[in-house]
TrEMBL record:
UniProt key word Membrane: yes
Residue spans crossing the bilayer: 7-27, 39-57, 69-86, 106-130
Swiss-Prot/TrEMBL keywords: Membrane, Transmembrane, Transmembrane helix
Keyword presence, Transmembrane: yes
Name of the protein described by the UniProt record: Uncharacterized protein
Length: 135
């Protein structure tokens, strides 16, 4: 409960700071004000990542490790399948730089991983809905 109150206060403080900086940015046409907002965004992302990692580790040791490892293994398998079905071709981008074959393959793998996971999520929702209708 104490952690919940601390997180609510921290969220409120970060929100107020972002609101003040956002109003300050929009009130003036100075582009140099974008940098502090970006730094605030980076700080918030870093805090969130640290908290997520801490809670994952905490729950990993207090929960069922076998199910966690099965889920992580399934995710790694999906990423590997997406990587191997992606083709890597060197491509020239609009600004004249070259996208290497390896970078192209990783981009394709990321997109295919997203599509596979989205299809699994939609399928699970449809299956759950049909299962509830049958009951």
């Amino acid at each position: 409960m104490v952690l919940h109150k601390i997180l609510k206060i921290l969220t409120l403080i970060i929100g107020v700071v972002a609101l003040v900086m956002g109003i300050w940015l929009f009130a003036s046409d100075n582009q140099s004000l974008v940098q502090p907002l970006m730094m605030l965004a980076y700080a918030v992302v870093a805090i969130v990542l640290v908290l997520v990692a801490a809670f994952v580790v905490k729950d990993l040791f207090s929960g069922n490790v076998k199910n966690t490892l099965i889920s992580v293994g399934a995710f790694v398998l999906i990423v590997a399948i997406a990587y191997f079905i992606s083709d890597g071709t060197a491509t020239e981008m609009k600004n004249g730089e070259m996208l290497t074959a390896n970078e192209s393959q990783w981009i394709g793998a990321g997109l295919r991983t997203f599509y596979i996971l989205a299809a699994i999520a939609v399928g699970a929702m449809i299956f759950s809905g049909i299962k509830k209708l049958i009951k």
